[in-house]
Amino acid sequence: MKESAVNCIKCKHFYVTWDNRYPNGCRAYGFKSKSRPAMMVKQSSGMTCLKFEPKAREARQ
């Protein structure tokens, strides 16, 4: 069974930092990195990100 890739940009825990060296952050795991946090989680643990939660959609008026 193929695992689907996690898109950090669509996760509510993802944020862009002011740190030029580590521009991507994850509030759920509490770290910043050069690449997307889900990629770092996969590299370090061998598992896909377990803390992914989709962002809440804003109501359009």
List the helices and strands and how they pair.
Elements: E1 14-16, E2 24-26, E3 31-33, H1 37-45
Antiparallel strand pairs: 1-2, 2-3
Protein described:
The chain has a domain at 1-32. The chain is built from one helix and three strands. It has one helix at 37-45; strands at residues 14-16, 24-26, 31-33. The protein has a three-stranded antiparallel sheet, with no helix packed on it. The chain is globular and about 40 Å long. The mean pLDDT is 89.
Strand order of the largest sheet: 1-2-3
Q: What is the overall shape?
A: globular
The tally of strands reads 3
Q: Class by helix and strand content?
A: alpha+beta
The helix-strand sequence is: EEEH
The biggest beta sheet is recorded as: 3 strands, antiparallel
From the alpha-carbon coordinates, what is the Rg to the nearest angstrom? 13 Å
What level of helicity do the residues show? 10-25%
Q: Please tell me the overall pLDDT.
A: 89
Tell me the fraction of residues in β-strands, as a range. Answer: 5-15%
Distance between termini?
41 Å
Low-confidence stretches: none
Query: So how many helices?
Result: 1
Protein name: Uracil-DNA glycosylase
Could you give a short description of this structure?
This protein is of the alpha+beta class and 61 residues long.
Features:
61 residues, single chain, alpha+beta
